[in-house]
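Case study 2.
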Amino acid sequence: MVIGIIVTSDRYPQHVVGLVRAALNRGHRVRVFATDEGVRLALYPDLVSLNEDTAMDLIYCLHSAKQRGLVDSMPEGMQSGSQYNNAKLIQTSDRVITV
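Prediction:
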């Protein structure tokens, strides 16, 4: 099963990490799209680590990151994208959670 998580806020990073870990522990593939204020979570160390070490894919909205001056701060190797990636996440996920 593929779990899609759309992150639009930076208020609950520990909840996003918890959701990702719970899904991974159950053997699910996890895709995260960070947009709006949620792009700040692409800098959250626990999510960066999960993105590097697990079956989670995190894509951040390049437009949102540019608006917030965060593009140069994004971890090396983290993928940027657009609302097209958001639409594909919704289309290809078995379940979608918005935070």
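The first strand starts at residue 2 and ends at 7.
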